[in-house]
Amino acid sequence: TSLVTCFAQETFGKQYKQTMGLDFFLRRITLPGSLNVTLQVWDIGGQTIGGKMLDKYIYGAQ
């Protein structure tokens, strides 16, 4: 969660906040050639890894 927040929001919080379920973050970047790209980053809480909902969270992800 801390790394995803740092990447997506360009800030690093001093307090840890556990991800409950699933969080989404967007990060807009410009690639060489002035190509604008929006990245959608998913942060899945550690307690859900291997759980019943994991397949539903990541179905169709690339």
TrEMBL record:
An example Pfam family from this entry, by short name, is Roc
Taxonomically, the superkingdom here is Eukaryota
| Alphabetical list of InterPro entries matching this protein | P-loop_NTPase
Mind telling me which residue stretches traverse the membrane in this protein?
Answer: none
Q: What is this protein called?
A: RAB28
